[in-house]
Amino acid sequence: MKVAIQGFRGSFHEVAARQYFGLNTALSFCATFGEVVAQVADGRADAALMAMENSLAGSILPNYLLLERHPLTITGEVYLPIHQHLLVLPGTTLADVQAVHSHPMALRQCGDYLSQYPHWQLVETEDTGLSAQHLAERRTPGLAVIAGAQAAEAFGLEILAPAINDDPNNYTRFLVLERATEAAPVAQPDKASLYFYTAHAPGQLAQALTLISGHGLNLSKLQSCPRPSQPWHYGFHADVEFAAPAQLEALLAELPAVTEELRVLGAYARGSMEFGQEELGTNHRARHAERSEASLPLR
Length: 299
Prior knowledge:
The protein is an alpha/beta fold. It contains nine helices and 15 strands. The strands form three sheets. Strands 1, 2, 3, 4, 5 and 11 form a six-stranded mixed sheet that branches. α6 (128-138) packs parallel to α7 (149-155). Mean pLDDT is 91; it is low at 276-299.
């Protein structure tokens, strides 16, 4: 199968995709998240892996809007530990560094370290791996990049300062996306991503959250997103965890009464926080059940 990712060779998206789909999976490298989603939606790719949030830098809000606007379903998630390093051309010292290039999320994750060098010019780029590739190809003096160890290995760079992210417990959460019309339901889901909005009136959101709690589901994420053409009105993305699918079914039966729109963006198995726990090389479709009348409805 072909999997679309944002980023290029040596990026964290590549690491996460190969962890989930297998080392030999064909990847389609995309410059933007919009292109990632478009490739799956129009059939150029079978699936996508898309970053949604980082434990230090927070949510990637535009990606929630992509989930709202495209007919894709979430079939899995990956938690990847992120270790950011300062990479340079061989022989470069800290005294030589004048500028640092990297993706804006990577720069944010390393704010404490970078604040020690206020004279460095920080330049936002489209991808950590691509930044490393450009440094290796262009050999720019005085330039460093922030990227992972996989980028250093791929492009022959040195790690001048290892593990410079602010917190060692730095994770990025990625979602696996497939076309809603073709994705097989996950065999044993224990997590779901919902999108809903309520009437713009006192207590409406509280009613929805009370139902989630009342049915025994754990609300692991609640993200508000602006509703286009309705200033200061918001929709909500909610990730809920449950012990049995019947809990989700019962919740979905009652939520429409307190929401103006409700969609299930996907029901899937929770990702592990332990890197490598899932067996590499295993086709993820083996985790999916055959379509049946008993599968959870996607509303």
